[in-house]
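cron nightly-structures :: item 1 of 1
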Amino acid sequence: MARDTAAAGKPRRSERHHASRASIRGKGYFRRLGPGIVTGAADDDPSGIGTYSQVGAATGNRLLWSAPVLLPLAFAVQEACARLALVTGKGLAGIIRERLPRPMLFLCVALVAVANTVNIAADIGSMSAALRLLVPVPPLAGVVGFGAVIVLAEIYVPYHRYAKLLRWLCLSLLAYVAVLFVAKVNWPQVGLDIVIPKIVWGRPDVALLIGLAGTTISPYLFFWQSAEEMEARATEEGYAVNETHIRAMRGDVFAGMATGVFVMMAIMITASATLHRAGITTVQTAEQAAQALSPLAGPFAGVLFLLGIVGTGLLSVPVLAGATSYAIAETFGWRESLEKRPSQARAFYAVILVSVVVGLGLNLIGLDPIQFLFIAAVTNGLAAPVLMAVIWWLARDTRLLGEWRSPLWSRILLGVATIAMGVLPFLWLLAPA
């Protein structure tokens, strides 16, 4: 009888969604974090690092205030994506397929697939370039080597193990925090720049804001967040959503997005304290930032920056390829799961393989890295507002989510984020050159 009472008072592990995440607080915090921390860390991919470095080098700390502004907006978007999957047990594309016209589904997935593939090309190219600055290897060897490692790991390592690997790769972001202790930072000025907005009204500053917003609120993160929640839920028997699951998910998502935004700030502050102060205002790639840091902040800073590029690339490229595969598989109703063997989900894994191979091909045909970043920025900018409007519509749908639909504060933040992402390109057109 005592045993039955205990069982009734505490849900079995199999009855709790993402059981290790049931309580965020206490010892073993990092081990308990789930999809949110991986998604937030993947936001700081090598192409994003290049963007943050360029902003810091070009403007100093003038746009640093954008980080705390973007955090709640990015959190609201990812929280809504996680909520949709947590309650329905379906990925974002699968939900769109059921609730909206097919043309809208095809448009969203096509835009995301193109943006993700170009991002993969930019990230693998940056990883290869960073590796060559550390070890003298041929460019082809670096590009193909990284591509092969990523594809083999994502296809042949089961999801429950792969998720643990991704969480540990998040530690590569600490490299950018460590660089702050090497660079000479004027912390009182940094504090002022965080809380006092400054902007020079013109296309250069507006373009940089678009880059920051597009890199922080990226469409591929929407699909990956919902897919990981769906994967975690699929492993739990007798699952039923409750307030504990929602709170744990929310804490996980906030921890992930806060980590991503904090690292963004660290990179911008480092670039400002070193490159901008030395008169270097143009940084076109992440590896150029690492090269420029070495003589200014010491070789230790440059090496850390380069190692961070490789580590974040190993984290973000699988997320990009996986997000594309989940979106396309859900669109066409294919079997989908990183937990399944390749023989059980051939089309799903084929999309991952094709995404990485096309990314490799774009590197091998000799396109300039800046072209990759520009095309990725444009496609992300086109896809994000459309997808965010769709997410806002779905997250408020009581027929879909019932009592677990997004609360008012979440819908307001998501609405503000959607409007801001849609308005910024128009502000760029109106701003003086």
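cron nightly-structures :: done
Confidence is low (pLDDT under 50) at residues 1-17, 19-24, 26-30.
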